[in-house]
Amino acid sequence: MAGRQLVVFDFDWSMADQDTDRWIFEVNAPDIRRKMEDLESSVQWTDLVAQSLLEGYEKGIKRKDIEHALKIIPYHPAMVRAVTTLKARGNTTFLCLSNANSVFISTILQEKGLDTLFEEIITNPAEWDTSGLLKLRRRIDPEGPQHGCKIGCSPNMCKGEELDAFLARHDSTYDRIIYVGDGSNDFCPVLHLRSQDIVCCRTFGGLPKRIARDGERFGLKCQVKYWTGAWELEEIFNTL
What we know:
- By secondary structure, this protein is of the alpha/beta class.
- It has helices at residues 20-28, 30-39, 45-58, 63-71, 77-88, 102-111, 159-169, 187-190, 206-214, 230-238; strands spanning 5-9, 92-101, 120-124, 126-128, 134-136, 176-181, 198-202, 223-227.
- Strands 3-2-1-6-7-8 form a six-stranded parallel beta sheet, sandwiched between helices. A two-stranded antiparallel ribbon has the order 4-5.
- α1 (20-28) packs across α2 (30-39) and α5 runs parallel beside α10.
């Protein structure tokens, strides 16, 4: 195993086997879920989720309904085994870098007994108000300075910048970084990895397409390992 290593996880479709934003409405309000599908191309995604949470609240969806949906989200036992076994071996720090939100992620991690897994969870902030409305906002305020990413990150967050900032904040030099992702917005941080680093790329989603199409053109340096099911990611982790 490398001397000191950092494992960076995206969350939706990388750690959980679903998209948290869509899942809670598929469970509780399919009509809102359909509206999200129709509006996705015209409204920034984090703003759309916030808008949908408000609509659900006004239609009577309660905090307990959202929390129940999060607690039953598909989440493979092999994923729990993979991360707990690797952390128990020592010398590995875990970072979550996700476009979901703090409440969704923390609720699921607590349900799975993984609430102490991550050193940091970098995501969109959310909090429950006293009436039971989940208030969500972008990590980067749309009224303030914006990131300058040209690779394809969402307006709410540049994952490459966030990874660099985490490393600077912790004054950390890791012998190896392992990035686990699936989406096209995971391509930017993967470009920040070195030749000794690894991206564990899920075989469906935008990331494998970006790697195949743009990896060479953008100077991708890291090793690429592909996985489909969590048991395959567990196999990879067992070799680290």
